[in-house]
Amino acid sequence: MNGLPATRAPRSLQTRLLLAVLALVLLAWASAAALTWHEAEDEVGELLDAHLAQTAALLRLQPLDALDDDQLNEASELDKHQHHVVFQLWHDGQLLARSKSAPAEPLTERRKRGFADSEVAGHAWRVFVTPGRESDVRILVGEQHSVRQDIVLASVKGMLKPLAWALPLLALGIWWVVRGLVRPLRQLGGAVAQRQPQSLTPLPTAGVPPEVLPLVAALNALFERMAELLAAERQFTADAAHELRTPIAGIRMQAQVAQGATQDAERAQALAATVRGCDRATRLVEQLLQLARLDADAEATDPAVPPTDLAEVARTLAGELAGTAESRGQRLALDLAGPTPVPLAEPLARVLLRNLLDNALRYSADGAQVQLHIGPATPGGAAQLCVQDSGPGLPDADIARLGERFFRVLGTGQSGSGLGWSIVQRIARLHGLRVQVDRSPALGGLRVAITWP
Asked: How far apart, in whole angstroms, are the C-alpha atoms of residue 311 and residue 349?
């Protein structure tokens, strides 16, 4: 036990949908029951009030002087069939007659004709009052409220009992319907689970409900992107193998020449060529590793990476490349506007600048000029670096193909792998940088401008 609270597994979509529908059904059923009770209470109340008034009207038709003991007994026989209805006859404050269930005290003090609610003998009563044919005579016909509530309850039970018995059947029907509605999702999950790992064929869309179709379309789009990625990786692997085969074959040939050389000068020349071949292969492997890291490393775009002073990186790289430039009589000039912090990790900034400067120096003629400008693109604007040279430049067709892996311009007389521009373009895409390539108006060669957002 590690003391951590157990994480409860989320309910399935079918369970949540079923619970939601059943909750709505129960809420609707309870609301209908409450409305039915209210309506039944009103209807039963009106009906029983009418019965009280009718009973009072029958008693009023009997004259008091004609009422003997037998007639009073007959009047009291109302209890046999309407035991919940009681009556009283009062004259000048004297109780003339009452039913067996009626209390001895008046059911109400009301004098005028009409209905009244009262509390007598510990019971709540609904009473109808009407004057008799003689003066100072009151006829009171009453009924207990509890009896009325019992009648309402019995009526509501009779109406809702069939619905209550139907609730389990309704729940079963809802479960069956919901299970059928989520069947396409289960079928989709089963189809995806049964696919082979290497299978990237799109899922069928025939018969798929419109609600599930966007999910299927998204999965098919994912499969398509994965297929394109795998195809690109296969092509990349094939091209990398081809590019590595050339320097390795050259190294092997020069090594064989060194083995068979009979003169020291010939052997030294072969060994120097071997070293150059090893350097070329090393450079190619390094660029391949850089591309692999850029493709797989999510931390390359981490916004928490501290900013890098692009000007300081440029000064360091210029010092490292000064020897190469001087050996060919080239001049590398820096135009730095001061510290230029950019949201880019320092290793990536070095890779970006080194590839741009290396390409400019490599593909420019001996004695060419290469200029590097770093500063804001406009006064107070975003940071920008610009590399331009006095080399031959590139036609528009070749500029459009820059960034394709292993693409090299023929006829330059320079060795290379064609991966430098791929690395530059990849870094730019990862960080939302704008890359512009055209002819340099100042030096006549190629100009590359990279602007931060």
From this structure: 10
How does 112-139 read in b/e, with b if 16+ C-beta sit within 10 Å? eeeebebebeeeebbbbbbebeeeebbb
- What is the CATH number for 155? 3.30.450
CA pair distance 218, 216, nearest whole angstrom: 5
CA distance 349 to 374: 13
CATH of the domain at 268: 1.10.287.130
In a domain, 186, yes or no: no
Q: Which amino acid is at 29?
A: W
Do 342 and 419 have their domain in common? yes
Of 91, 68, 81, the closest CA to residue 139 belongs to 91
Residue 204 structure tokens: 């069928």
Q: In this structure, are residues 79 and 99 in contact, taking their beta carbons and an 8 Å threshold? A: yes
Three-state DSSP state, 144: strand
Q: Which residues contact 343 (CB under 8 A, 6 or more apart)?
A: 303, 305, 307, 431, 452
Q: Which two tokens stand for residue 160?
A: 């809702």
Question: pLDDT of 68-121, one tens digit each?
Answer: 544 454 444 444 445 578 888 887 778 888 888 788 888 888 888 888 888 888
Contact 324, 397 (CB under 8 A): no
Question: DSSP assignment, residue 403?
Answer: T
Residues forming a β-bridge with 142? 86, 127
Please choose, from the candidates 114, 134, 130, the residue with its C-alpha nearest in 3D space to the C-alpha of residue 67: 134
Q: How many domains does the chain have?
A: 3
For the chain, the 3-state helix, strand and coil shares in percent, each to the nearest 5, are 55, 15, 30
Whether residue 193 is predicted with pLDDT greater than 80 in this model: the reply is: no
Are residues 289 and 308 both part of a single domain? no
Task: For residue 52, tell me if it sits in a domain.
Answer: yes
Q: What is the residue range of 105's domain? A: 13-168
121 DSSP assignment: T
Are 19 and 162 contained in the same domain? yes
